[in-house]
Design goal:
The protein is 52% helix and 20% strand. By secondary structure, it is of the alpha/beta class.
Length: 308
């Protein structure tokens, strides 16, 4: 519920409706089942949000989005075996905008659906191009909770694979724990259908949500990605050490591969390798980079591996 208390009686009916809509938006943002009062600050925020939404529409129309790729490295072989596709927005006025700034607004406005569709299609197209160059890399793509609730993911994936010619067994779909727990029965069915096509499935940011054995047994998962927040302080913080060790042990016991996100230091790499972690992804190897720069990095990596 949004509430407006009008004291000077100068506002028109249309303005009052706009004010109460601003308050309603604030109430929804705070978790629903609540109420919020209108303030002038809310109007400013709503105006800014509407302007941002218009820019996002323009970005889709004018192809202002770009995918960056972050390498994923196999601990034992030390080879780059895959990449995660990460969206960036090249705004003509404000330059490169991080997804942390625009994805929440895209989800609130529903624009995450066409954006997510574009990401999947572009990632598959790039994955196919790299396969044709002899780069046998897994391509990881994130699917949001909003997409799961509002889009036919199986149809999206089928179309992206068909149009690009990308191999299903090289595609990895990443979902968060919270996304998987929404419409649980439908998600279980969806994941089994995707898995039957040869597509790999990963839980992103593992450890920050439900982290329950019960759903891990039900969902056909291939990879657990340990959230960066747990990796940051290993091998120095005993609580994080214990959590990471527990996740790796649990994942291995259930037959999953384990990937550590946000690896930045050699000490983290050495610790994770000793614990039996399968893959790592982070600035230690490379920050997310455009496709051309990744190709240069990958070729350098291959040359370095051959010299060993």
């Amino acid at each position: 519920m949004g509430i407006v208390i009008e004291s000077d009686h100068n506002a028109t009916a249309q303005e009052l409706i706009q004010y109460v809509d601003s308050a309603l938006f604030k109430a929804k943002k705070e978790g629903r089942s609540t109420f919020a009062y209108y303030t002038s600050e809310l109007t400013r925020l709503v105006v800014e949000r509407m302007a941002y939404e218009r820019r996002l529409h323009r970005a889709l129309e004018n192809s202002e989005f770009e995918l960056y790729y972050q390498p994923q490295v196999h601990f034992l072989s030390e080879k780059i075996v895959g990449v995660e596709a990460l969206i960036r927005w090249n705004d003509p006025e404000f330059g490169l905008i991080s997804p942390e700034d625009f994805i929440p607004i895209a989800e609130e406005t529903g624009l995450i659906s066409p954006i997510g569709k574009w990401v999947l299609e572009e990632a598959c197209r790039q994955g196919k191009a790299w396969l044709e160059c002899g780069y046998h890399l897994n391509m990881s793509v994130n699917v949001s909770a909003y997409q799961i609730q509002n889009q036919n993911i199986i149809e999206l994936v089928d179309n992206a694979l068909k149009e690009s010619g990308f191999s299903p067994d090289k595609l990895v779909i990443e979902l968060t724990e919270s996304a998987m727990m929404q419409r649980e029965e439908e998600v279980v069915t969806m994941l089994h259908i995707l898995r039957a096509k040869g597509i790999k499935l990963a839980i992103d940011d593992f450890g920050t949500g439900y982290s329950s054995y019960s759903y891990l047994k039900r969902f056909p998962i291939d990879i657990l990605k340990i959230d960066k927040s747990f990796i940051d302080d290993v091998p120095y913080e005993k609580d994080d050490i214990a959590i990471v060790q527990a996740i790796i042990a649990m994942g291995k016991a259930l037959g999953f591969s384990i990937m550590a996100e946000g690896t930045e230091q050699i000490e983290q790499i050495e610790f994770l390798k000793a614990q039996g972690c399968t893959y790592y992804q982070g600035y230690y190897k490379s920050k997310p980079i455009p496709a051309k720069k990744f190709e240069e990095l990958f070729l350098q990596h291959i040359e370095s591996s051959c010299k060993k």
